[in-house]
Amino acid sequence: MTTSSSTVTLTTAQAIIRWLSNQFIEINGTEYRVCGGGFGIFGHGNVTCLGEALYGVQEELPLYRGQNEQSMGFAAAGYAKQWLRQRFMFCTASAGPGTANLLTAAGLAHANRLPMLMLCGDAFLTRLPDPVLQQMENFNDPTFGVNDAFKPVSRYWDRISHPAQVIQSLPNALATMLDPADCGPAFLGLPQDVQGWTYDYPLSFFEKKVHRIRRQSPDEAELADAVALLKTAKRPMIIAGGGIQYSRAVTELTDFAETHQIPVVETIAGRANLLATHPLNIGPLGVTGSNSANAIAEEADVILAVGTRLQDFTTGSWTAFAQDAKFISINAGRHDAGKHMSLPVVGDAKLSLTALSGELDYTGPADWVSKAQGHRAEWDAYVAENVSYGNRPNSYAQAIGVVNALCDPRDRVVAAAGGLPAEVTANWRTLDIGTVDVEFGFSCMGYEIAGAWGARIAQAEREPDQDTITFCGDGSYMMLNSDIYSSVLSQKKMIVLVLDNGGFAVINKLQNNTGNESFNNLLADCPTIPTPFGVDFTAHAAAMGAAAEKVANPAELGEAFKRAKASDKTYVIVMDVDAYEGWTQEGHTWWEVGTPHITNSDRVRDAHVDWESSRAKQRKGV
């Protein structure tokens, strides 16, 4: 390395890492590195140059060794969620299959609007050694490779073709990741030769910079329109989305609802915006929701949606609301704010709710609020019965109830694809704000353990005495479990609940509900499996260094959970649950799925007719 009075000679890789090390963010008056470190698996495409650059900054940017590139990306997503998108992790993977493994994680981060930086190896820019190991050759376009597959799942994408390019690309990537309206993953393809090339970078490029996340004020005209519409409401309702968390607007949401006496329902991403005991919290909305929230959604005439992209599980594929209901959408992103003919208020949730409240002289009708609260009381009674156990088969809901009763209010709960997101969303009673992470934006199996590991890394930076608890089905466990080992190696304790129902039971349920016979979902129904047998998950987890035990019922689960809380390392608890009995039966809106229009099966035909009978309720707005 050579340095003059105004420049320093660095490789491209060294410049990237040096720049990242000097980017900070202010959070509640405290400065943190905006990049908390990274997850890395080295290969020939990133070890020699990027690995060399990372070696010298192990304190500033700790590098966690992953076991699988996809799970590294999930861990980065879990970390970003825990930090409310204010900080992120990078993932580095080698050229070829290592980088390709990150595609699913990039899709998850994109769908959930989460910051994640991918620093991935690429083919040689000179092409002198082509074709190289793991290179995908495109005969008509030699510039087109595996890394181009990341373009649709990245918010920012670039291939670094010259060392000077990072002077523009790095700030642009960071600006994207910190932009509330455009937040998502950033991808930088790093050709193996370019990583090692040098350039005389200006020293000013590496000066410490403190970033702040932008808060966009709402437009006065849009605000006035929202005020005018809300004043006409006879049955108002607020949909509280995950954007409220990211805006750190929980207090403003609560104040707004209390001041104007408007019932609040939560999306899946918005779970834990309000405590379960708050009198205006009417419950979760939609396909995995509650009878209470869905009942008032059907009657609401003016709906204020805050920080939500209104995906189909929230809207019941747009059957959850009255055809003539009017929507106001507060969102930092204009694309989300204008969905389904909403009256848009483009702006930060915290600023917009405060401004809207200041202009709004309105109180919701007392009888409407009372009616909503009555629905919530009925739902609470249903949940209490649903999570209780005794003389009936083990269920997801029972396990959720046991953990809910014994965990600390600040413990973080994680779930993802399969049946558990629905069961957690419907049955979990929020004990503290921002403590629930149900990944249903991309509905990605395998996030449960990897995402929890990332969340635990972030949690340990601020709340080291709390636990991260993840609910995981046997199908998701088999898909991606190696970060149990990662958590043990890194001494980032998790509590993993493995609930074994013998396969992909929730898809089997959908298969049966649409008139189809059980086929290829439960192990017992796979024609290519002559003799099904269960996995010894406790032995498997123990082999990765975790403490592990299997319990027979929810009562034993409670005792095991106490031992897990007392343990100082990752603890896995396994319990068998019934694949057919014990599902939460209430609280579901319609969900559009494709069913066969012609079939030789009477059951499938009847199910198709029954399924389609709810389509008349579907709003046709764009």
Your description of this structure?
This protein has 622 residues and is of the alpha/beta class. It has 4 domains: 205 residues, Rossmann fold; 159 residues, Rossmann fold, CATH 3.40.50; 189 residues, Rossmann fold (3-Layer(aba) Sandwich), CATH 3.40.50; 31 residues, no CATH class. Helix content is 36%, strand content 18%. The chain has 24 helices and 23 strands. The strands form 5 sheets. A 6-stranded parallel beta sheet has the order 5-4-6-7-9-8, with helices on both faces. A 6-stranded parallel beta sheet has the order 14-13-12-15-16-17, sandwiched between helices. Helix 11 runs antiparallel to helix 15. The termini are far apart. The relative contact order is 0.10.
Features:
alpha/beta, thiamine pyrophosphate binding, 3D-(3,5/4)-trihydroxycyclohexane-1,2-dione hydrolase, 18% strand, hydrolase activity, acting on acid carbon-carbon bonds, in ketonic substances, Rossmann fold, six-stranded parallel β-sheet, 24 helices, 622 residues, hydrolase, transferase, 4 domains
